[in-house]
UniProtKB/TrEMBL annotation:
Source superkingdom: Bacteria
Location of the Peptidase M61 catalytic domain: 278-342
Keyword hit for Protease: yes
Keywords: Hydrolase, Metalloprotease, Protease
Lineage per the UniProt record: Bacteria, Pseudomonadati, Bacteroidota, Chitinophagia, Chitinophagales
Protein's recorded name: Predicted metalloprotease, contains C-terminal PDZ domain
């Protein structure tokens, strides 16, 4: 017993001396919209260190505006401004412990909306910020292994505490790279949470607000998706993983950001879990393997059908496999994508042509998601017709065989498609990616896993000109000669006024486009449709 005690105490002291932090943060509250953050670090031999304030992150600029009151707390320490608003210099006695503090504010007004969560969110009830948006940090010699300590002080004991490193505690030590520290999340307050432990691996989910779904449903479905994807790839994941859900007080927005060992989720209050949030979690988490684990060659636009489209397919298949959506809901999604793909203005565009054009318009960007999802669905069905296996096995095989470079290879992929399915499937995939969908269509119509069905479409929404380019230029651009827009009198180069009314994807409501024509303002009205004659493959569950 005595030996055991001695052994433990030696270990303890070793751990303690080994864990003296290089950098520590103590978070406390000043008032309902301000935090006081105390920072301590070991000064270097020169006695001078640069302090970095948040600046640009995601769509946000000038994040240093949320920081004020930089104050030196250690003896003989002086902080001075530089010619950059996001950099300060701190001078101190060489080699001593340097301590300073700063105030972090909510520097925007009103309730949380997209995309304000990329700035510090500090309310009376809770606070949330990301390393990028809220941490002031010193330049350190070793940025790869920073021994950190993070504490919360003076909060109510009923508050929840959570971050990328630990939860349900007010103090923790960890070693992390500077990059991961900045990519971490930090929060505390009146949040509801659940911790799930599987084989020593913790998943913590925290949320707040009055939501359209029960806490239990959110906790269990988010945890289930993460666990299902880890099982899919036979990986245990990090020992600790944190997920935070914050409601947005706007309409129709769903967003999520993957962080260091954490996931931040945002959705407009009133929206349910199934339509957007759960598929988004499943999609983003799947990128840990398709996209991050297995990277695409550069330029990556010609491979987006795989990295985005297959990930999109699994965002629904994982939900279906986990019982979070029904088979009909799963097939409903597939049918929706089939319709969108077959009606896409870029249906016949080769993947190679996407280089440099991917972000040009949402239709161009979505082409890879739609085509890739349908190709994944086709391969999955074709493999299942032939064997006990599925696309799941092919993907795991691809992942294994892609090492050690872990760069996606179309040659390896095609070889696997031929061996798991057949040459006809591999050929249909290649042709579709080259812009020829005839073989794909034929195979979809003869599928035996689901009952093939079809949808006849005689008209599609067509505004008749390039909406985004026109809005950007302030004048009509990209007019289609045979469109209803042209027939109604719109012409390239006409200046736009602010009298614009368009019901996107609605084929019965007239579009109203205000323009200046020969010096006169007028509004041109027309039904934004294009006559087509398309037979679109659809699928139904076998009776
Ligand atoms: Zn994605």
């Amino acid at each position: 017993m005595k030996t055991l005690f001695l052994f433990i105490s030696i270990c303890f002291s070793l751990v303690c001396s080994g864990q003296k932090p290089d950098l520590s943060y103590t978070l406390s509250r000043k008032d309902s919209t301000t935090l006081i953050i105390k920072v301590a670090f070991t000064g270097n031999a020169t006695g001078e260190t640069t302090l970095h304030l948040p600046d640009k992150w995601a769509s946000q600029q000038s994040l240093y505006k949320a920081v004020s009151g930089l104050t030196a707390l250690s003896p003989a320490t002086v902080i001075s401004a530089t010619d950059r608003r996001d950099k300060y210099t701190v001078r101190y006695k060489p080699g001593t412990n340097v301590v300073f503090s700063y105030l972090l504010h909510k520097d925007w007004e009103g309730p949380l909306k997209y995309p304000l969560y990329f700035r510090p969110v500090i309310n009376a009830d809770y606070f949330y910020f990301e390393g990028y948006s809220g941490l002031v940090y010193p330049s350190l010699a070793d940025t790869a292994h920073i021994k950190c300590r993070l504490s919360y002080e003076g909060f109510s004991k009923d508050d929840f505490f959570g971050n990328s490193f630990y939860a349900n505690a007010t103090d923790g030590k960890f070693t992390v790279s500077q990059e991961s520290l900045l990519n971490a999340v930090f929060c505390a307050g009146k949040l509801r949470s659940r911790t799930t432990k599987v084989a020593g691996h913790q998943i913590v989910v925290a949320l707040t607000g009055k939501l359209a779904f029960s806490d239990d449903t959110a906790f269990s479905s988010i945890t289930n998706i993460i666990q299902a994807e880890r099982r899919f790839w036979n990986e245990k994941g990090p020992e600790y993983y944190f997920t935070l859900f914050l409601p947005l007080y706007d309409q129709g927005n769903t967003g999520g950001t993957a962080h260091y060992h954490a996931f931040s989720l945002f959705q407009s209050v009133g929206l349910d879990l199934k339509s957007n949030l759960l598929p988004m979690i499943a999609h983003e988490y799947f990128h840990n393997w398709l996209g991050l684990g297995l990277k695409m060659p550069e330029p990556d636009e010609p491979y987006k059908w795989f990295s985005e489209g297959f990930t999109e397919y699994y965002s629904f298949k994982i939900l279906f496999q986990s019982g979070l959506i029904s088979k009909d809901e799963f097939l409903g999604r597939i049918n929706g994508y089939l319709k969108d793909y077959y009606l896409s203005p870029y249906f016949n565009m080769a993947a190679q042509k996407l280089i440099g054009r991917y972000w040009e318009s949402s239709e161009l960007k979505l082409l890879s998601y739609r085509r890739g999802l349908i190709l994944a669905f086709l391969i999955d069905s074709r493999i299942r017709e032939k064997s006990q296996g599925s696309l799941d096995d092919l993907l795991r095989d691809l992942y294994r065989q892609s090492g050690p470079a872990m760069i996606f290879s179309n040659v390896l992929f095609s070889r696997l498609v031929r061996s798991y399915s057949d040459a006809a499937t591999a050929m249909a995939i290649d042709k579709a990616n080259g812009g020829d969908n005839s073989r794909l269509t034929k195979l979809l119509f003869i599928g035996r896993i689901y009952q093939a069905d079809s949808l006849q479409v005689d008209k599609v929404f067509d505004l008749g000109f390039d909406w985004q380019a026109s809005r950007k230029a302030g004048e009509i651009r990209g007019l289609e000669i045979a469109s209803n827009a042209a027939k109604a009198g719109l012409a390239n180069g006409m200046k736009l006024t602010d009298r614009l009314s368009v019901w996107f994807n609605n084929t019965s409501k007239p579009a109203e486009i205000g323009v200046v024509d020969k010096g006169k303002e007028k509004v041109i009205r027309y039904i934004p449709v294009l006559q087509v004659d398309k037979i679109i493959p659809q699928v139904k569950a076998l009776k």
